[in-house]
Amino acid sequence: MTIWNILSRTRNKASKQETVLLALLPVLPKILGVATRNAQQKQVKNDILCDLIEVIFAPIVAQENSRVEVECIDGKVQLSFPHLSAWIVDHLENVRLKGIQQYQYVVCKVRPVQLGSYLSHSAVKRDRKYEDLFNKFSDNDQQAGKELTDHDFKCLPRVFWRLLNIQQSDLPKPDILHVVYLGIFETYLMKWIIGFLKQFKRLQLFNAIWKSLAVYPGYSAPNKAYSGISQWTGKDMRYLVKVILPCFAAALCRPSTVERPIFTKALTCVWSIVDFTLMC
User: Fold this and answer.
1) What is d(CA 77, CA 39) in angstroms, rounded to the nearest whole number?
2) Which of 132, 140, 184, 257 has a CA 20 to 30 Å removed from the CA of 65?
3) DSSP state, 200?
């Protein structure tokens, strides 16, 4: 647990102890082979997680409607109302907290004129709708269960439904490493780039360019070809974002007349995603 307004230079130092460990969530062993037992175990695991979250945050929930005097850095005392406002998660944790399917496709239903606006009321209505559907499913309404699964939800209670005054749609805050670097960039963009280079027989040239990169301040040169790297760290991904566009452009040099418009579109696509990633 931490508080919101801590400078990054302080937050990133472990010696400052800006985070407090509240609990370690248990990981139950998997039971494979019997579908009924698997379903029962999923129910048990979800119930345990819901119980633990309720116990862990019970002190905060108890204080939500009570004001607490907090001494601020400027020496003044402010009235504070403790509230759970964010949960930094990766994709799999987000799946567990929201009770959604792991490989669902997210569809944006916001109108173009509403993009950039905070539509809190819509999220609240949507959360209440799914909670009502689950309650009907718990009362043996199979149609409600089908509607939940049609929207890529699991027929299990959400983790934060028991906590009052918490808007679950705003709670999970995906971190940049897992969503942007390991998600959009490494999982989708790089796989597409490798497939593209294979199709036009330029992967060997790309690997040669990749291995020839020199050391530079703020950049550590790789000692393997790109195809030979099996595991990426956050630092490796940040280095990759800095050099992927020039490496990709160099690998697409001297295109034929037929290849030129295709390569131009590919470079524009990679350029746009790199710009977006560097802005995050």
Assistant:
1) 51
2) 132
3) T
69 within 8 A of 80, measured Cβ to Cβ:
yes
- Give the closest residue to 237 by CA, choosing from 209, 266, 274, 194: 274
Report the DSSP beta bridge partners of residue 88. 173
* Contact (CB, 8 A) for 95 and 152: no
Helix (H) or strand (E) segment spanning residue 208: helix 203-211
Q: Where are the beta strands (DSSP E) in the chain?
A: 68-71, 77-80, 87-89, 172-174
| Residue 171: both structure tokens together | 């709670």
Q: What is the pLDDT of residues 174-210, one digit of tens each?
A: 667 667 777 788 778 888 999 999 999 999 999 889 8
**Residue-level pLDDT at 104:** 62
Render pLDDT for 205-223 as a digit per residue (tens, 0 to 9). 998 898 888 888 877 877 7
CA distance 85 to 276: 26
Q: How far apart are CA 82 and CA 4, in angstroms?
A: 11
First CA to last CA across the chain, in angstroms?
Answer: 23
> Contacts from 257-261 at CB under 8 Å and sequence distance 24+?
259/200
Secondary structure tally for the chain: helices H, strands E = 11, 4
CA distance 185 to 273: 8
The Cα–Cα gap between 150 and 133 comes to 12
Q: How far apart are CA 149 and CA 262, in angstroms?
A: 40
Q: How far apart are CA 96 and CA 101, in angstroms?
A: 9
- Number of residues that this document lists for the chain: 280
Q: Collect all residues with Cβ–Cβ distance below 8 Å to 169 and sequence separation of at least 6.
A: 123, 124, 126, 127
- How does strand 87-89 pair with strand 172-174? parallel
In whole angstroms, give the CA distance from residue 151 to residue 145. 10
Token duo for residue 226: 């790109």
